[in-house]
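Example (one chain per record):
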Amino acid sequence: MKKVLVINANPKNQSFCKSLANKYALEAALTHDVKLLHVSEMDFEISLDRGYDTSPVLEKDLLYFQELILWSEHIVIVTPVWWGTLPAKFKGLIDRVFLPNFAFKYVDGKAFPEKLLLGRSSELYITLDTPPFWYKYFKGNAIYKQLKKSILDFSGIKNHSATYFGPVVGSSSETRQKWLSKVSKQAGKLL
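Predicted structure:
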C-alpha cells in the first residue's frame, strides 16, 4: 500500500483535469492511501517576489501542500497545457513550495544542490487542446521537460510516465470516457 498524492493542477473549478484526477484517486483508493488536492481550491499568493533572498511566510494552504508532499510516496500530477506549459497558479504553487531546504539544498563547493525529496515517484497526465503528437514532436514538449527535468528530477522525485490526452476541446463524450477508463486502469496497476 502506497501513500499517493493526486494533484489536479487545473486552476478552474470544473475541468476535464478534475474528472481525470477524481477518477485516478477513486481507483487508486481501492488499494492505496490516497489524498486528492485541487489547486483551484487553494488560496495563496502565486508570486515569489523576492526569489530566495528571504524565507517567505507560507500561507496555510502552502504548508498543507508541503505536508502532503512529505507524506507522499507517489505523486500524480494532472495538468492542462496552457500557452505551451503549466498554468500560472500551478507554477506559482511550485515556486512558493519547492523551496531551498525543502525540495533541495545548496551545498558549498558543489555545482548541483542536494535533492531532498528522494524516494518518491511520480506520473503525469497532461491534457491539451491540440493533438499530443504535434505538441510533443513539433512544439518541443515543454511541459514534460519542465516538470520532469526542472522540477521533479531536480528535487529527487523520479517520474515513471507521462500520458497525454488531446485534443480535449471538441472531444466527444465517448472519447472522454475512453480517456477516463485509461486513467482508471493505470491507477489500478499502481504497485
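Caption: The chain has a mean pLDDT of 96.
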